[in-house]
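Lab notebook, bench 4. The sequencing result for the construct came back, and we need a structural model before the next group meeting so we can plan mutations. Quick request posted to the team channel:

Model the 3D structure of this chain.
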Amino acid sequence: MGLVVQRCCETTAAQQWRLVWPRFLAILAALMLLAGIFVIVTTTLDNGSWIIGQPVWFAVVYVLCVAVLAATAWRLREATAYPWSGVALLSVAVFLVLTLAGVRDNILIHTSEPTAEAVADLKRHLPPDTRLVSLGPVFHVFVYYYGDPIPILPRSGRESALPACGAYFCFDESASPPVKVNFPWEPIAKISCERRHRPHPHDVVVVGRRLP
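Done. Here's the predicted structure in token form:
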């Protein structure tokens, strides 16, 4: 983008390419205002179920910043001299950061599975000094949030591969081939590792305890 701005600024007034950047800034200024209106309206009408709803404090900050950025881009759309042409470019960059790293990330957080909270709740209910093992590899998201090392045992779930009665283990529910647990056990928890919330998640880690 910086190269495009430089080339537009270096052209002579008679060249048509000189008109591209001012028009681009004018269009983008209008889009900034529309984005601000969209965010504040969806946040105001949000009842907690919309995936596009934003935190109120962020929506207010976003609208104020976007209004300033849109005004800056509009007023400096014809600027060709430094530093004002750079300020116009900076307004575009800040808008993209606020939208992609702000609005978009908030939507991703809102639609994500609460894997971290589920794993933390699991660890609170496990006995102290529990040594959790896995029957075959499990999803890296689960291992990351669990925090402690999880030794990997064969997927066959052979009785000889596990410690004595009361041992805790986990496995990937959708593993291929499927995990075969060939000893008595009871499920303790099922934790979804999906990136987005789904009514019937596919990527699930099952945590169980071996019975006598």
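Residues 115-210 form one domain.
Will bring this to the meeting.
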